[in-house]
Amino acid sequence: MTGTVQGVGFRPFVFRHATRLGLSGWVLNDGAGVLIEVEGAESSILEVSRLLVDAPPRLARVGTITDDVIPLEGDAGFTIVESSAGGIPTAPVGIDTATCDACLAEVEDPGDRRYRHPFTNCTDCGPRYTIVESVPYDRPATTMAGFTMCGRCQGEYDDAGDRRFHAQPNACPACGPQLRWTTQDAATSVGDDALRAAIDALREGRVIAVKGIGGFHLAVDATKDDAVAELRRRKARDDKPFAVMVRDLAAVRELCELTTAAEDALSSPGRPVVLAPRRPGAALAAGVAPGLPEVGVLLAYSPLHHLLLDGVARPLVMTSANVSDDPIAYEDDDVATRLGGLVDGVLGHDRPIHIRCDDSVVRAVGERTQVLRRSRGLAPAPLPLAVPARHPILGLGAELKSTVAVTLGSEVVASHHIGDLEHLATYRSYLQAIDHLCGLYAIRPAVVAHDLHPEYLSSKLAADLELPTVGVQHHHAHLASCLTEYGRSDPVIGLVFDGLGYGTDGSLWGGEVFVADLRGFERVGHLAPVTMPGGVRAIREPWRMGVAWAHRAGADHPFDDPRADAVGDLVRRGHGPVTTSMGRLFDAVSALLGMRPVVTYEAQAAIELEALARTVPRGEAVAYPVDVDRDERGMIRIDPSTLVATLMRERQRTPRAVLAASFHESIGRAAAHAAVMAARERGLRTVALSGGVFQNPRLSEIVEEALGAAGLEVLVHRIVPPNDGGISIGQCAVAAATT
Ligand code: ZN
Ligand code: ZN
Ligand code: FE
């Protein structure tokens, strides 16, 4: 059997049923998955085979089952055979999984030997990807190798009737890892005293670091304004929202409006952060998610989280332990050096984390969820490829929100979220992730797929690897990642809207209409190009894009700043790179409406523009005219110049929120119109929406509605991020189809 079948209790599952049905033989984990040999009555063998397919263990995801008839060997009884180190290790590694109900009940039961034990787990729950050093997945190949099980734990581990049978991280207070609390004045405590000290610190409003599954969090009482403000100051983070952890769904409901889809996502075994609309009057500090209608919430996912939240009895901010944009800290020594001065105490422990992994992020919109960051609890679940790879491919991703991916024949496996490569520490972590991923699956890449941007560190790395390379255009990779999600390889229309990506003509694309399949693409339309005055500075300073778009619209810029006139000159002379980016248009409009001249995190201007638009019902927004015409090469051109001029004129008499909503309505319908034109011309019936701009729920809704009304099928991202976190998957899909 292949698929996610190791580390999920498959061997004990087979053992229990085989024994019950009187079959003899064995089961083992090998490099490819699970191998089973059974002898006995045909009906019993058929029954076991049926259970493998119909009722596998909770966390298993069965890929393929291949069977064969072999001569009888006369095995006596049924056994679990130790892992063989042979074979090619291509078996998917399990994902880190939230504490199950049975384990939680033990942790909360004063009569149980695991009462208040923060490292309780079983075959249905606990850490996996973050503790695995190599495959096959067995205790010696994990960071639990240094802990010798006590007699009772070993007994559970060996007992096929026990739910900890072969649970690799199995532990108890007598033999497992220990908590340790350290403070600046060098006071330390261990075990339950450490836990209680951390709880006291949180109750006093202190900022502490807590070691979790994939790294340390910085934690603080989420209801205390001054404590949250202090955390922002220390972490050097101005506005970017913090995630809030609570103990159960009832506690989330006090903070957020939840749909069924949101509740399902919150309680899924991967326990992602879920962005959901904040309930009016929710008891949260103002600084948790400044200026945003949504708050990111997640449920406790380890016994330690449950114990902390029970002790503090308030929601906790749980944000990655790092300063600014550095990677999340995951080693106890590292926390002391990098963050020691920033926190009032560190709650660490001696179970090492092998690979760091940030929390995943999912947005719930109505009855749909969309993964925005695919990391802890979701990576490295494999995805099927529509066109299988003929050889191992390594996809290096882009530059921001980096992930890497490898192909395993008919599947692609993407890493956890790594971050923005321009930071040296993140780049090191990126190189580590490549080694780890290739090591886990024993992959020696035959082909390296990379972005076309010559300045991306990922592109430069591709050139240094001395392997055959495939350059995949950024927006083609976005689109291919969306097609992969749906198992599609046929030509579609793609609307790919994002911040920036290197185009085949050397300009910066980002508002593109493609006719494409996995093999290639044709650019058939685009947003009207404007100058990006100051180059990359225009990303941090949306007012620069405001000047550029005001110029194209034939209007005076509204900025009362002498620098704006100088930038206006640059634009008039066409000085700076040219871009067709939709993300930059959103920035420009935000600045022109007087909202966000300068941003402190990526896409902040667009996120806040959407948040404002959302306060206005669709029906109260105006769809202003937007030209959808042809450029000099005959390509479809979406030209919002008149829209920009209209918005600037209306500024005096129309509320800003209505203008924000009207901008969404206008540009969304124009984009859909462009896609419909392209679809009619090419006789295609499907439109895929990709790129980070499609994280905007209001825009997505408008575009989808208009495309649906035109009778077209619409593909939207659900499990692969529409942003650059999905690029490595798309690169692999394109390289698989073309090499
Ligand atoms: Zn469990
Ligand atoms: Zn023990
Ligand atoms: Fe992108």
Structure characterization notes:
- It is globular and about 85 Å long.
- α20 packs across α21 (697-709).
- The strands form 6 sheets. It has an 11-stranded mixed β-sheet, with helices on both faces.
- Residues 86-90 have low confidence and may be disordered.
- β21 (447-451), α12 (457-464) and β22 form a beta-alpha-beta unit.
- Helix content is 32%, strand content 20%.
- The protein contains 22 helices and 31 strands.
- The structure holds zinc ion (ZN) (2 copies) and fe (iii) ion.
The largest sheet is: 11 strands, mixed
Stretches where pLDDT is under 50 for at least 5 consecutive residues are: 86-90
The number of distinct helices, counting runs of at least 4 residues, comes to 22
Indicate the CATH class of the domain at 179-362: Alpha Beta
Query: What small molecules does the structure contain?
Result: zinc ion, fe (iii) ion
Topology, number of strands: 31
What is the CATH homologous superfamily assignment of the domain at 179-362? DHBP synthase
CATH architecture label of the domain at 179-362: Alpha-Beta Complex
Question: Which class best fits the helix and strand makeup?
Answer: alpha/beta
Oligomer: single chain
Q: What value does the average pLDDT take?
A: 94
Name the helicity range.
25-40%
Please state the CA-atom Rg, rounded to the nearest Å: 27 Å
Strand order of the largest sheet: 7-6-14-8-9-13-10-12-11-15-16
End-to-end separation: 28 Å
**Strand portion:** 15-25%
Q: Overall 3D geometry?
A: globular
The CATH topology of the domain at 179-362 is: DHBP synthase
